Amino acid sequence: MTLITDSGDRLDDLALDLDGRLVRPDDADWDVARTAWHLDVDQRPAAVAQVASVRDVSAVVDAARELGLTVAAQSTGHNAAPLGDLAGTILVRTGAMRGVEIDPDRRIARVEAGAWWADVTTAAAEHGLAALAGSSHDVGVAGYVLGGGASWLLRSHGLAANTVVALDVVTADGRARRVDADHEPDLFWALRGGGGDFAVVTHIELRLFPIASVVAGVLFFPLERAEEVLQAWRRWLPSVPDEVTSVGRILNFPPLPDLPPQLAGNSFAVVEVCCQLTEAEVDALLVPLRALGPAIDTVHVTPMTELSLLHMDPPGPVPGIGDGRLLHALDEDGISAFVAATLAAGSELLSAELRQLGGAAGRRPADGGAVASFDADLLMFAVGITPVPEAVPVVRAAIMSVQEALRPWWTGGSYLNFAEEPRTPDELFGEETAARLRAVKAAVDPTGLIRSNHPVR
Ligand SMILES: Cc1cc2nc3c(=O)[nH]c(=O)nc-3n(C[C@H](O)[C@H](O)[C@H](O)COP(=O)(O)OP(=O)(O)OC[C@H]3O[C@@H](n4cnc5c(N)ncnc54)[C@H](O)[C@@H]3O)c2cc1C
């Protein structure tokens, strides 16, 4: 690789050439430009390229290659923590590219790489259509689908990565390429679940589904009843059809003025449900859980645009750390271990949850990508807020204590999107898939110009 010695001049040229902006450490908006959704991730790249077009992405990749720098793509920074040291990297931020086009006849959304899920769900809902969106309105479509994508329709429709029909990308050679089942099939396979290590994605085309609403909501119980409630949820799971995706969870709401007064500063054991059934069918299904007498019951017919409120994720960027693992089904001892460890962690954790897998989430489609299903029954995730740096080790220890308590039920695997700490490729993908992903990486990016939060080698 030829290195240009006067990197300042080359970056000046790049800045002039972009439709978007190149922000550098001396610029007034440097701190805003480098901030991730996870506010406590202190990103210090060589420069931030706020790209506005495919041409911009190619220009940044070419400049990085000439300067001996690397490139990391980021839409929102929801999973910024594992990226690590960014010195020597141009951070490509796609936030200016949030366009969404819906083709209602083909039921396809064409989405720019910086789009949030809210952009897609709102546009699709105008046509009575729905995508396999993340739980939160501001999660980036790109990172989410590249990593797999576990939506509220996970057990009925499988992973969101399986709905990708094509991607437009810029590879390490600066070339814009169309990637689908017939063009660059190895790259198409890798980008569906293998993460963002292979190319900078500029557009994604996704299948949509004719779903206008679901029956969804939360059953809240006092925290003291966590063991009883989550054991009942565990016993209830085998009776649940694939049209239902549920979460068992312990939540400690901080005492914030914007939260409803009945939630602020209070702790609960909750069961969240999203059902593609009639209200009467849901009422029948929920009998054993409602028999426990929830303090609050919000289950109601929910338009798809409202579904992003169900999981009660933070409305915007926060300082916090989280991490998750894939689990086998928990028996009585497993639930007791989860409850005991989460209660012991107390308010250091905002939330510890168990997402129900199985159904379509466990069935690998024949034409699936690198990660197309989960060989697990539950997905655990624990998260805490870290308003000051001293909170980081405390919250990390709390998360690890819950993971440690569940070790006997751990499958040995992790889900890329819920891994907010570095992981080995073998743990994320399994040995065979990790080896195939490394081969794709070697073919499309032999010098490692493109970096991701979960590199495959
Ligand atoms: C509050 C919250 C709620 C969540 N809910 C869900 C959920 O319901 N289901 C679920 O499955 N996950 C969920 N997640 C996890 C989420 O899917 C991951 O954090 C995902 O990485 C977010 O994608 P992003 O683009 O917003 O993040 P970013 O941090 O911007 O990107 C993460 C990685 O994706 C890759 N990437 C992003 N853009 C590009 C691009 N243009 N080209 C190439 N690579 C790119 C890069 O490797 C990057 O490091 C949630 C996370 C949070 C914090």
What does this entry look like structurally?
The protein is of the alpha+beta class and 457 residues long. 28% of the residues lie in helices and 23% in strands. It has helices at 7-17, 30-33, 54-67, 117-125, 141-147, 154-157, 185-191, 226-236, 279-285, 287-290, 332-345, 391-405, 425-429, 431-444; strands at residues 21-23, 47-50, 70-74, 89-93, 100-103, 108-112, 164-170, 176-180, 200-207, 213-222, 244-252, 267-275, 296-297, 300-303, 320-327, 351-356, 378-385, 450-451. The strands form three sheets. Strands 10, 11, 12, 13, 14, 15, 16 and 17 form an eight-stranded antiparallel sheet that branches. A five-stranded mixed sheet has the order 1-2-4-3-18, with helices on one face. It has a five-stranded antiparallel sheet with strand order 5-6-9-7-8. A hairpin with a 4-residue loop joins β5 (100-103) and β6 (108-112). α8 packs antiparallel against α11. The two termini are 20 Å apart. The structure holds flavin-adenine dinucleotide.
The counted number of beta strands is 18
Overall pLDDT score: 97
Can you summarize the main beta sheet?
A: 8 strands, antiparallel
Low-pLDDT parts are: none
Write the layout of secondary structure elements.
Blueprint: H1 7-17, E1 21-23, H2 30-33, E2 47-50, H3 54-67, E3 70-74, E4 89-93, E5 100-103, E6 108-112, H4 117-125, H5 141-147, H6 154-157, E7 164-170, E8 176-180, H7 185-191, E9 200-207, E10 213-222, H8 226-236, E11 244-252, E12 267-275, H9 279-285, H10 287-290, E13 296-297, E14 300-303, E15 320-327, H11 332-345, E16 351-356, E17 378-385, H12 391-405, H13 425-429, H14 431-444, E18 450-451
Parallel strand pairs: 2-4, 3-4, 3-18
Antiparallel strand pairs: 1-2, 5-6, 6-9, 7-8, 7-9, 10-12, 10-13, 10-14, 11-12, 11-16, 15-17, 16-17
Helix pairs in contact: 1-3, 8-11, 11-12
The chain binds flavin-adenine dinucleotide.
